Amino acid sequence: MEEIIAVEHLSKYFTIHNLGKHIEALHDINIAMKEGEFVGITGKSGSGKSTVFKCIYRTYVPQRGSIWYNSKKFGPVNLTKASERQVIYLRKHEIGYVSQFLNVMPRTTARELVKQGVLEMGRAEDYAEWEAEKMLAHFELDRELWDSYPATFSGGEKLRLNIARAMVKHPRLLLLDEPTASLDYTSKLRVRELIEQLIREGTTMMGIFHDLEFMENLCHREYTLRDGKLVDRAAVNLY
Fold first, then answer.
1. Which of 29, 60, 72, 112 is buried most, with the most CB atoms less than 10 Å from its CB?
2. At what angle do helices 125-138 and 155-167 cross, to 10 degrees?
């Protein structure tokens, strides 16, 4: 299996202009993943876990380092320097992101939101409708909510919808930022089932978790982010 992504010497800091300070969130992060791998990342709140994902997804541009992604369409792409056109394409067709928060266009229903993800992949209208309904049913989102606006949903319902929207596209690389944060036990099992299915299909995944029990027998490798540095969890547990 070849590497699908390689993060090399990644560093990111934020500037507090009124204080003239630089806060280093990430320092010399290095990690490479092969197709079909699932890597779990833990760490205290504010340790920089989400910052890693936002750099990969190109929400943030790091000060140093590179993120090489082996795109199906473009070949090797350094995501830190990719064009906006490339980034938009990759987000639509190859790289998925599940955050703890759901940001959608107003007056877009849950069904339309998930369906749109399938249509973006170039699939037919009927197929997109079927896939959207299957995914919403899998996450046990009440059928009465399918044609409602997500702004009215609870936190757990929004998170389930966010996961459904990303997973329905079966992306090549999927970033999961606390995908079980506000879910009940049954919903967590639904997420786990789909993660296992995507792994079987060859999707590469990186997940941020506080729920260590959820990670058991699921991740191929586990890391902890500490003081802006990525450390193998096995090494951390020795001390």
1. 29
2. 140
Q: Token pair 């757990």 is at which residue?
A: 156
- d(Cα 38, Cα 14) in Å, to the nearest integer? 29
107-136 average pLDDT score: 90
| Six-digit token string for 94 | 């190859």
State the CATH number of the domain containing residue 197.
Answer: 3.40.50.300
Is residue 79 a part of any domain in this protein? no
State which residues form the domain around 52. Answer: 37-57+93-236
Query: How many domains are contained in the chain?
Result: 1
- Tell how strand 3-16 and strand 64-71 pair up: antiparallel
Residue 88 lies in a domain: no
Going across the sheet that includes 64-71, the strands are 21-34, 3-16, 64-71, 75-78
Residue pair 172/203 in contact (Cβ under 8 Å)? The answer is yes
Q: Is 188 helix (H, G, I), strand (E, B) or coil?
A: helix
Looking up tokens 């320097």, which residue turns up?
81
Return the closest-CA partner of residue 38 out of 215, 189, 226. Answer: 215
pTM, two decimal places: 0.88
pLDDT tens-digit series, residues 147-180: 998 888 888 888 888 888 888 888 999 999 988 8
In the predicted model, what is the mean pLDDT of the chain? 88
Which residues have C-beta within 8 Å of that of residue 229, sequence separation ≥ 6?
A: 27, 28, 29
Q: Across residues 213-237, what is the average pLDDT? A: 81
Is residue 223 within 8 A of residue 39, CB to CB? The reply is yes
* Partners of 131 in the β-ladder: none
Asked if residue 13 belongs to a domain, the reply is no
Q: Looking at the domain assignment, is residue 23 inside a domain?
A: no
